[in-house]
Model the fold of this input.
Amino acid sequence: MPMVEQKLKADPLQADLTSGQTAENSPVVNQIGPAQSTDKKRQNSLVESIINFSVEFGPSRKDILNFTNQLAVMIRAGISLQESLNSIASQTENKKFRQVISDLKNRIEAGQSFSQALGEHPEVFSNLYTNMVSAAEISGSLSSMLNKLADYLDQEAETRSQVKSAMVYPVIIAVMAVVATSFLLVFVLPRFLKVFAGKEHMLPTPTKIIMAISLFVQGYWFAILFAIAAGLWAFWYFIKTKSGRYWWDNVKLKVPIMKTLSRNLYVTRSLYTMGSLTEAGVPILDTILITAQMAGNVHYSNLWLHVHEQVRQGKKIASSLNGSKLMPAGVVQMIRSGEESGTLGEVLKDIAEFYSRELKTTIKMVTSMIEPAMIVVMGFLVGFIAMSIILPIFKMSSVVSGK
Done:
């Protein structure tokens, strides 16, 4: 120890440098450790976020239907509304819907009624749903009303499924026709055309036409795809506008095959909605207004808004519908009978069920008509291309044999 002290006293500058170096090195070592640890945690969290990344959509109609059925069963079993919502939320896989259900529970616990809480989420629960629950709260029949709502949602889902299923087969055939034609034009036909190189003057007109189309498709396929995508986007954007929606809804009611399908669909939806609300005890003016919102076609919506104004002035529903081309005369007559007998809700649902059966029949008829038509079109396209290839071969063989 004395020797150390003597060295320090003999060379104080060296002692300061030594102690300074030690003091600096120690903190630096201590700082590098936590920094590396933080960076590693950030990397791990980034990797986890990438692995767990998912796009979560809002609840589907099936989710809302399952929610309604579960809630009806739990309420009927005597479980409180808050406990039922909490239990359903814990079992719901869709994160956004789980948050909505939890919010419903919190709002009810804060003092709001169930219908008021539902009204805070119009993007999930329709005006019809909220009003039927509101009527059930007044009458004290929430469980039975939820069952009616489930029946309505099930009927609506079945109707949509019927319409979509009617379009599946034609779309598949159309896609196959486009794919097969494109394959023949781009890959098959050019190989055959090499045989006819230098003899273009001898080719028949159909072959010249198909050659021009094939060359155009090969040279400008990217422009064709862009034009198709741009056309589809422009059409979609147009029908989202007010004038475009009015035009498209009018087309659906004018085109021969689509007209029958659309009318049955809109009559079924309107009358089933109106019948469900009437049986639920919703006031008639609110019922008609909600029916206008749920109609699904701007022309039927305008019809029900006209009926709403007429009924508000004291007229009957049947008399307000008189003379309308959108509602069959037989339907108007049955509505009049329901109003006179006081059984309007039952009559409306009976009519809706009748037109639902008519809708199924119409879908089968439309499908049976579209199938052969699409097959004929596809056969014509493929046959025209095959004929364009075979005709010049026959022509050349006849020229050779003539020589």
Observations:
- Residues 1-32, 49-54 have pLDDT under 50 and may be disordered.
